[in-house]
Amino acid sequence: MNRLVPGPIKRLYNAVWREWLIYHLADERYKFMFDPPPPDEWVVLDCETTGLNIAKDQIISIGAVRIVGNKLMTSERLELLIKPDKELSAESVKIHRLRELDLVNGLAPEIAIAKLMHFIGSRPIVGYYLEFDVAMLNKVIWRMLGQGLPQEKIEVSEMYYEYKNAQLPINERGQMIDLRFETLMKDLSLPVRDAHDALNDAVMTGLAFVKLRQLLRQ
Predict the structure, then answer these.
(1) What's residue 86's pLDDT?
(2) What is the DSSP-derived secondary structure letter of residue 64?
(3) What pLDDT score does 195 carry?
(4) What is the pLDDT of residues 12-28, one digit of tens each?
(5) What residue ranges do the domains of the chain occupy?
(6) d(Cα 97, Cα 201) in Å, to the nearest integer?
(7) Low-confidence ranges of the chain (pLDDT < 50)
(8) Quick one: angle between helices 198-217 and 156-167, nearest 10?
(9) How confident is the model at residue 62, as a pLDDT?
């Protein structure tokens, strides 16, 4: 509904909604997430989890990198391990290659995600199939703040779909497009790192975001 109203009304709606969220924020130390974001800056993030069940599984690793303009600031990165409160399944270890031994000194979820929120600040969040990662993060953030992450969310697979769809003849637009990450990276001629590592995945997603921004402006 919000996207259908005229610009001035939309801005007023957003301002009122922002103030409502701040008023109901359970911990005022995190009001900074509602500040105007730094211009031309984003944070790309990725999470590794014990599985794909949002209700039952947990985050065990977070990787995040800042982007400024067209530069991926790999020197400004965040890499966190989180200690789960249940045993890891053999299936999940095969995917993310993190063993219980690797996580024995991991942070408590609230501590890790507090560090992440300070790292993000008010910057828009970029990710590949970001909805899942945000849902996993918000399970903890709701306990801390009484609400989820308020920052703008940018989905790289949607950017890639927009780019590929625009290349098709008008009468062929809207058809299915292969959005697999390996397809996206190969098509954009971007370097590939070992997958299912939170920081590596965040860096690759950041590279895709920067290139797609450039392509979509052309």
Answers:
(1) 78
(2) E
(3) 74
(4) 888 898 999 999 999 99
(5) 33-217
(6) 14
(7) 1-5
(8) 40
(9) 97
In 119-177, DSSP assigns E strands to 125-127, 153-155
Return the C-alpha torsion angle 27, 31, 34, 38, nearest 10. Answer: -140
Chain mean position to CA 116: 11
The answer to whether 89 and 52 have CB atoms below 8 angstroms apart is no
Q: What is the CATH code of the structural domain delimited by 33-217?
A: 3.30.420.10
- Specify the pLDDT at position 94: 67
Residue 30 · residue 24 · CB < 8 Å: no
Alpha carbon distance 82, 127 (integer Å): 20
Give the burial class of 66: count Cβ atoms within 10 A of its Cβ; 0-12 exposed, 13-18 middle, 19 or more buried.
buried
The residues pairing with 127 across neighbouring beta strands, listed in sequence order, are: 155
DSSP helix/strand/coil, 81: strand
| Whole-number Å distance between alpha carbons of 208 and 140 | 28
pLDDT digit string, tens, across residues 92-106: 776 777 877 778 899
Owner of token pair 């995917």: 95
Q: Which residues pair with 206 in a beta bridge?
A: none
- Nearest of 4, 129, 126, 133 to residue 59 by alpha carbon: 133
Name the nearest CA neighbour of 215 among 161, 135, 134, 145. Answer: 161
- Cα dihedral sign, 133-134-135-137: positive
The beta-carbon contacts of 29-32 under 8 Å, at least 24 apart in sequence, are 30/117, 30/144, 30/145, 32/121, 32/122
- Which residues are CB-contacts of 38 (< 8 A; sequence separation ≥ 6)? 121, 122, 123
